[in-house]
């Protein structure tokens, strides 16, 4: 078998460390075949045909969705598994109280047994990829070994995959070693293990999204955040957008919202009529890597190359740019299929079809109490399909950030928008972010939990140290972005959202941009700056003024309860819980009293 490795590989790379590692993985997993991925069109065609022939992908109607395919996961494998995700550091303290921890020897031992012989009868694909624009000082090379052709085809969309990655790596040993095997999809034998001290990821027993596409949450966030702490930068669960004002001036904003809480939608937003001369451009929809530029501002790149976006709720009203993005060359996962071979999900435009094939391949009839598409069904689409893709998305330096927005999904308490008084107070707003859980991870949906900076499932080290890193970065950023908090998800007594959201979020974004450039006043409250009466442009907005009042209302009673929960969270963080943030909480409490 060794000759086979060398035979295929040497045309692509002579990197000894890489060849040795691939040989070791092959000896462990014992695949029948090894395929090195070069990222070419011919390879895509070949692998797509193979995926169709083996039932991994179902071709969709080429007249309706050219180049599009449907994939159905095993029904037990449809979301991230936070309880099976581990940070494997020498000490448990390094992983901290919010991560599952396993000692590296134990994790390597356990998973070695699982990987042993796990690819017998299967093909082992070797995927070289880059996270980040080619030539960017932030970019990183990863290698993912997988037995899943679905993973290969997704990684091809989500990363800069193939030859450019090997060219960037050269003969360097500095690459992330990602080993993935689908196994038998038994949740009892499912582990997503990160070894940040070894720049290594081992993932076994899931074929789904964030568990299996190792460049995304595993490398770009968990390993990335670890590197960011050591090297003085940020790896964050953030969208990146550019807002162009009528005079052509661009302002770049990042936003941290937890999973399935609106990043993709905000990043692709189309401003309403009132803001017809404004334009929003997408740089990224899920992950931002940010570092201090020579000019003293914070600069962000999107490490990804495509979108792995939530399907349900996406329609031509809520997110027309996403609908255009997924019109072609897209892989759909766990959505429903129409009779004529198109896709469907809850919240799509138009009439609900009478009959569908549901996400599990079963016949489905209108009026059924079960959902036709899985609530965490997704599309994987190349970013180049996005009609509002920023022209700076491949810039090695990235874009300069003027504002950072933290936003959770909160039915109560948290107002539409707040600006922090200063950096430490803004870090406090981000650190205390609460949000209702969603279908993006297995477990109960709709439970409010603390999700600091939307990074609870993704910080690859001690959460207290992570928050301290945010505080410490202040002195490294001479011209820091302004920090904000938003909530699109507050509900009225009728249980309906008070704020129309989606494109209408432009009204809030405009205030944020104006504040970031110190062009508009604000009203000081104990919680932070809020828009002065009349400063939030509501003209042409077709909802009763009382609803906006309710969405922006701050109730001292509700906040006292909130602050108690925040105290519990800071206490849970233990000895690394930053003193500064606890002081911020006490200051707020004293302002309230
Ligand atoms: P991940 O890919 O999981 O990280 O999610 P995301 O943060 O990119 O979330 P996304 O934009 O895909 O939105 C998730 C869900 O929230 C979808 O069902 C949207 O329709 C809904 N949503 C997004 N923005 C808004 C909004 O402004 N208001 C309301 N009410 N719903 C929204
Ligand atoms: C998320 O859950 O935040 C996602 C989807 O963006 S996944 O890639 O599965 O993590
Ligand atoms: Mn995400």
Entry summary:
This protein is 28% helix and 22% strand. It has 593 residues and is of the alpha/beta class. The protein has three domains: 206 residues, Phosphoenolpyruvate Carboxykinase, domain 1 (3-Layer(aba) Sandwich); 267 residues, Phosphoenolpyruvate Carboxykinase, domain 3; 79 residues, Phosphoenolpyruvate Carboxykinase, domain 2, CATH 2.170.8.
Bound molecules: guanosine-5'-triphosphate, sulfopyruvate, manganese (II) ion
Shape: globular
Give the domain tally. 3
CATH topology (level 3) name of the largest domain? Phosphoenolpyruvate Carboxykinase, domain 3
Number of strands: 31
Uncertain regions spanning at least 5 consecutive residues: none
Top CATH class of the largest domain: Alpha Beta
Structural class: alpha/beta
Which CATH architecture of the largest domain is right?
Alpha-Beta Complex
Helix content: 25-40%
Protein architecture, described:
- There is one protein chain.
- By secondary structure, this protein is α/β, with parallel strands linked by helices.
- It has three domains: 2-55 and 80-231, Phosphoenolpyruvate Carboxykinase, domain 1; 236-302 and 393-592, Phosphoenolpyruvate Carboxykinase, domain 3 (Alpha-Beta Complex); 307-385, Beta Complex (Phosphoenolpyruvate Carboxykinase, domain 2).
- Helix content is 28%, strand content 22%.
- The chain has 17 helices and 31 strands.
- The strands form seven sheets. Strands 1, 4, 5, 6, 7, 8, 9, 10 and 11 form a nine-stranded mixed sheet that branches. Strands 12, 13, 14, 15, 16, 17, 25, 26 and 29 form a nine-stranded mixed sheet that branches.
- Strand 6 (123-131) and strand 7 (140-146) form a beta hairpin.
- Helix 16 (556-572) packs antiparallel against helix 17.
- The radius of gyration is 24 Å and the shape is globular.
- It starts with a helix and ends with a helix.
- The mean pLDDT is 96.
């Amino acid at each position: 078998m060794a000759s086979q490795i060398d035979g295929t590989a040497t045309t692509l790379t002579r990197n000894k460390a890489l060849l040795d590692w691939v040989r070791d993985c092959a000896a462990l997993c014992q695949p029948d075949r090894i395929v090195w991925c070069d990222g070419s069109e011919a390879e895509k065609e070949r692998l797509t045909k193979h995926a169709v022939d083996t039932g991994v992908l179902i071709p969709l109607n080429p007249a309706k969705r050219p180049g599009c395919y449907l994939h159905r996961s095993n029904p037990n494998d449809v979301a991230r598994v936070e309880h099976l995700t581990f940070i494997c550091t020498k000490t448990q303290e390094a992983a901290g109280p919010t991560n599952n921890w396993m000692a590296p020897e134990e994790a390597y031992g356990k998973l070695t047994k699982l990987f042993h012989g796990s690819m017998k009868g299967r093909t082992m694909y070797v995927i070289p990829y880059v996270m980040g624009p080619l030539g960017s000082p932030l970019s990183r090379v990863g290698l993912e070994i997988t037995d899943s052709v679905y993973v290969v085809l997704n990684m091809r969309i989500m990363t800069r995959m193939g030859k450019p990655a090997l060219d960037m790596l050269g003969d360097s040993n500095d690459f992330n070693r990602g080993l993935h095997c689908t196994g038998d999809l038994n949740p009892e034998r499912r582990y997503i293990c990160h070894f940040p001290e070894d720049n290594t990821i081992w993932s076994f027993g899931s074929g789904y999204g964030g568990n299996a596409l190792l460049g995304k949450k595993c490398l770009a966030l968990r390993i990335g955040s670890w590197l960011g702490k050591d090297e003085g930068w940020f790896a964050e669960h953030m969208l990146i957008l550019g807002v162009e004002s009528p005079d052509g001036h661009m302002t770049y904003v990042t936003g941290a919202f937890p999973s399935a809480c609106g990043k993709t939608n905000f990043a692709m937003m189309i401003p309403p009529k009132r803001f017809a001369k404004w334009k929003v451009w997408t740089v990224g929809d899920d992950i931002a890597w940010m570092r201090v530029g020579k000019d003293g501002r914070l600069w962000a790149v999107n490490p990804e190359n495509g979108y792995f976006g939530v399907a349900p709720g996406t329609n031509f009203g809520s997110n027309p740019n996403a609908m255009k993005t997924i019109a072609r060359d897209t892989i759909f996962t766990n959505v429903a299929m129409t009779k004529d071979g198109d896709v469907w999900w809850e919240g799509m435009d138009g009439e609900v079809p009478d009959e569908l094939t549901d996400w599990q391949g079963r016949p489905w009839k209108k009026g059924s109490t079960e959902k036709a598409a899985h609530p965490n069904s997704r599309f994987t689409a190349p970013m180049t399909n996005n009609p509002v893709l920023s022209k700076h998305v491949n810039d090695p330096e990235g874009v300069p950030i003027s504002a950072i927005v933290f936003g959770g999904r909160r039915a109560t308490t948290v107002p539409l928008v707040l600006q922090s008084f200063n950096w430490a107070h803004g870090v406090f707003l981000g650190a205390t972010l609460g949000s209702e859980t969603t279908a993006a991870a297995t477990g109960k949906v709709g439970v409010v939990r603390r999700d600091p900076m939307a990074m609870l499932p993704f910080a690859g080290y001690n959460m207290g140290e992570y928050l301290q890193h945010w505080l410490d970065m202040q002195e490294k950023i001479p011209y820091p972005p302004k920090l904000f908090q938003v909530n699109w998800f507050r509900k009225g007594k009728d249980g309906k959202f008070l704020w129309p959201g989606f494109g209408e979020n432009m009204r809030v974004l405009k205030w944020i941009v104006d504040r970031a450039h110190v062009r508009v006043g604000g009203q000081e409250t104990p919680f932070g700056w809020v828009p002065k009466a009349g400063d939030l442009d509501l003209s042409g907005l077709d909802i009763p003024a009382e609803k906006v009042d309710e969405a922006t209302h701050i109730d001292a009673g509700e906040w006292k309860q909130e602050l108690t929960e925040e105290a519990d969270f800071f206490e849970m963080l233990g000895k690394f819980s930053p003193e500064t943030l606890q002081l911020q909480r006490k200051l707020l409490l004293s302002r309230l009293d």
